[in-house]
Amino acid sequence: MDKFTGANDADGATAIYATGFNSNAAFLIAAQAAVTNAYTLASAAHAGTITFLRGVDLSQASSGVSNCGPAGNAACGVGTLGAGVYNSASTMSITAGPLTLDGGGNAQSVFIFQIGSALTMAAPGGNMILVNGANACNIYWADLSGATLGGVPTGASFYGNILAPTGAIAISTAITTFKGRALAGSAGVTISAPTTGLTITGPGGN
């Protein structure tokens, strides 16, 4: 892990594990290996994986699965995804509108996004919404080429744990809520807070 800049930690503590910020080389190597291991586990094949054949804007995607709503048995509309594993060999983005993750009334529901290339959240409508028990601690973005979260409408939110073993992660512009973890194995994590302020909180859970 290479670089961390900027941001306010709403939990009152900031941990930086990166070259230039932590002199314990053995700890850094172990942390880097842990990111790679977590990515490998999240990227593994899972029964019932929903595969998008090309790059996909998740805000316009449909799963074809009825596991949304308070009881977890309602059809999921376009731009709303229930718990599950979602795979694209190419890119994933949240761009044209918001992505809603629906926990189906289960606070333990898990969402895994397996991204062969990059994750982007951008204008004109990039944003995330959690409903019916969906929890940031159970959202995983297994993102080989890194992520760029920026150029979004003021007040946008992002949730979940980004696992990027080789790519950089950039969080910028008008995002005001980031609840999760941004973990880069060998590249940088750069945070540029907007003038309105960026609040970063842990995702909860273990």
Note poorly predicted spans. 1-16
**Radius of gyration (Å):** 16 Å
**Helix- and strand-based class?**
mainly beta
Strand content: 35-45%
Cα shape: globular
Strand order of the largest sheet: 2-18-16-14-12-9-6-3
Number of helices: 1
Largest sheet at a glance?
A: 8 strands, parallel
Order of helices and strands: EEHEEEEEEEEEEEEEEEE
Helicity range: under 10%
Beta-strand segment tally: 18
How many distinct domains?
1
- Give the N-terminus to C-terminus distance in angstroms: 22 Å
Mean pLDDT: 84
List keywords for this structure.
206 residues, mainly beta, eight-stranded parallel β-sheet, seven-stranded parallel β-sheet, 1 helix, 18 strands, 36% strand, globular, disordered N terminus
